[in-house]
């Protein structure tokens, strides 16, 4: 069973580019002075533009990739390093996102690669418009360029170029150091996917990787044991990533930590609730993709709700496990919540109000949120696990641990890369039923996974064969009810556009002027 691609048109990408140019022009006309973190980034970039390579602001926490990009683009377009043109750097990287996302959508959906890179589907343009991601494409920040090169590295990995992936990954580290985790994730995800479809002789060992929704804790031990036997065969593929990891380790040892400057305000701390905030965040903003997608019996909002309920309360054993996990989450909230000084004092960010007026409005609210955090996790596991193997689905939650847990500050920008990768794994809506000898039924998850495995990625072989639930004639599958795959990109577009419109309008036109020790200061609200 091959997933269907949504309609594509160059007009979608043209409209995205036009909107980006218009918004950038408006931002530059209204916010004509550096704002928030830009007072640190802009002078540093201007120093590099003047070839003052020895100048470095000790308050800057990230490597100089953003400023080096400004120098490169300045030489190409021959512009002066003034604020409006410096903001062009992240905007240009923002324009590249739909192109990379289109290639990665085809990769995840096991569809042939497109020859016309400018003819992008609406879904790729919409994902590039994800509200916090889109917003920071108009400020001289490191986030969008870093994400652009991580996605470009993934595209190279999808095309089988390990060395080019590592090279692009190296450049992505010059924007944000934690990208090392996502480069290793890219390698791990592609490797697991390749091993799953690899054709092996009966005497050869294979990776134990059952369908995600059919797996158990015992399968983890079996998978780890089978992976150990396969590690020698992965040496040459991993070599570029091993060298990259070694270089990163050498940098950390030389620097005395991951953060370059302002280390006193960026001390790593164990902040376990970050995982809970991530799943709550992606559910709140990504609910259209979560509810209006899926394959088989878990497809759509009703199928997903039923499966979440079954996983949490379907049997007495599951009820006890849900209670146990909820108690564990409550304990983590009680013991490992960090009230960072920035989030308590800086009322220019939406997280200030979410922290004070939602999460900690009452001392019991964090504990009452615990079962909701668990339900959100189950919902996303079910949604992406309905068409993936256990290891494929587990890799992203594992990558979140070293990325988010050491960070004491709740910051939506830290959630952007994992959300993009999570969204790419969401299958288009495909509710199916079978007909054979008059028997009708719904395809089961393992059957669906094997159906997909029977159509492997281009250039890969498989030994799996589709299984059928009914025992009559060859079954014929067709959709029933509303085909949400046709409406999901448009629903996401309306939802994201509403959020983007409101947040950008508030940022540009709902500013306040306050008196400070340095005189009057304009306050703008942002992510």
N-to-C span: 40 Å
Can you tell me the residue ranges where pLDDT is under 50 for at least 5 consecutive residues? 1-5, 433-448, 450-479
**Helix count, DSSP H or I runs of 4 or more residues:** 24
Strands ordered across the widest β-sheet: 4-3-5
Strand portion: under 5%
The total count of strands amounts to: 7
- Mean pLDDT across residues: 87
Structural class: mainly alpha
Most strands sheet: 3 strands, antiparallel
Structural Rg: 24 Å
Shape: globular
Helix content: 55-70%
Outline of the structure:
With 527 residues, this protein is mostly helical.
Please tell me about this protein's structure.
The protein is mostly helical and 527 residues long. It contains 24 helices and 7 strands. The strands form 3 sheets. The chain has a 3-stranded antiparallel sheet with strand order 4-3-5, with no helix packed on it. The radius of gyration is 24 Å and the shape is globular. Residues 1-5, 433-448 and 450-479 have low confidence and may be disordered.
Topology (elements, then pairings):
Blueprint: E1 8-9, H1 10-30, H2 38-49, H3 65-77, H4 83-86, H5 88-108, E2 120-121, H6 122-128, H7 131-135, H8 143-158, H9 162-172, H10 179-197, H11 217-230, H12 235-255, H13 273-285, H14 287-291, H15 300-313, H16 316-336, H17 341-345, H18 350-359, H19 365-368, H20 370-385, H21 390-404, H22 416-424, E3 432-436, E4 439-441, H23 445-453, E5 476-479, H24 484-509, E6 512-516, E7 519-523
Antiparallel strand pairs: 1-2, 3-4, 3-5, 6-7
